[in-house]
Amino acid sequence: MLTRLKAKSEGKLAKQICKVVLDHFEKQYSKELGDAWNTVRKILTSPSCWQYAVLLNRFNYPFELEKDLHLKGYHTLFQGSLPNYPKSMKCYLSRTPGRIPSERHQIGNLKKYYLLNAASLLPVLALELRDGEKVLDLCAAPGGKSIALLQCACPGYLHCNEYDSLRLKWLRQTLESFIPQPLINVIEVSELDGRKMGDAQPEMFDKVLVDAPCSNDRSWLFSSDSQKASCRISQRRNLPLLQIALLRSAIKALRPGGILVYSTCTLSKAENQDVISEILNSHSNIMPMDIKGIARTCSHDFTFSPTGQECGLLVIPDKGKAWGPMYVAKLKKSWSTGKW
């Protein structure tokens, strides 16, 4: 089965690198990552080196595919090394590049698997979702992290928000493709400006995920329009302002004692560490949570770059571990009053 699926995906990796973006990244990331940038650049600019993890859908379990993955040498993510790893989540990955095609959306039929960058599961796992909790996925489209959250536990209420109308349609379709109707009934999908969510639903949620709009280094590198790419780069400096505003809204929406996870798929320090530092410096009721243990236990699957933060991890693409970029930070809201 796996060989047949893989054959259908041949020829889809030919992409054109945007020189404007690469030159910009060269200047920024050679400073921020040092020598590691040489390896990261080589992986990011070579789609044939990219790896894709296979997240199995527990609501329509693909037993035949799982057997094929084993035969092909795939192994399960973390392989039991991560504390509190949910037994209901099964994600397979290979040390070699390549991918199988995504399944087509068919009304009434649940998909059996979801293809993703394995590092994108780290924010989901950092959230440590428990059955019955109220959860907010503030910037939810295209829906991969919402799907992954539901592989971990069954929340009492899951609110998936997406401000962009086109991406909202994508989100709805993803949820319909993977989640059975009884569970769909506990999911609310909204199209609210995420910066207003905190005022709309103050202290409503036990857990909040902010997978923020960001530079998205992988996709930006292959921008087909150089003019648009140049415009994006000039707008890039405004992204931290949006990310900070989204986090402030998320903090308002989070109940005291609740957990907040922030993530991006960029290497940019300005959008990662600097955003979290600003939040910690301006909110006395937000505490950093140490997640360095994840890096220690997951080093066989991921390569991490130093962030200088106990609450922040940065996964960088590496040879044989071509996952990321993915930045993850974990925060907790205390019972004291914060300053805004």
Automatic annotation (TrEMBL):
Family indicated by similarity: Belongs to the class I-like SAM-binding methyltransferase superfamily. RsmB/NOP family.
Organism whose genome encodes this protein: Chlorocebus sabaeus (Green monkey)
Keywords for the protein's UniProt record, in alphabetical order: Methyltransferase, Mitochondrion, RNA-binding, S-adenosyl-L-methionine, Transferase
Organism superkingdom: Eukaryota
Primary location class: mitochondrion
Keyword Methyltransferase in record: yes
Binding residues for S-adenosyl-L-methionine: C139, A140, A141, P142, G143, G144, K145, E162, D193, D211
Location of this chain's protein in the cell: Mitochondrion
Signal sequence interval, chain numbering: none
InterPro entries reported in the protein's UniProt record: MeTrfase_RsmB-F_NOP2_cat (IPR049560), MeTrfase_RsmB-F_NOP2_dom (IPR001678), RCMT (IPR023267), SAM-dependent_MTases_sf (IPR029063)
Name by which UniProt lists this protein: NOP2/Sun RNA methyltransferase 3
GO cellular component: mitochondrial large ribosomal subunit
GO molecular function, one term: tRNA (cytidine-5-)-methyltransferase activity
Residue ranges of every copy of the SAM-dependent MTase RsmB/NOP-type domain listed in the record: 44-334
Entry annotated with the keyword Mitochondrion: yes
Residues annotated as the enzyme's active site: C265
GO biological process: regulation of mitochondrial translation; rRNA methylation; tRNA wobble base cytosine methylation
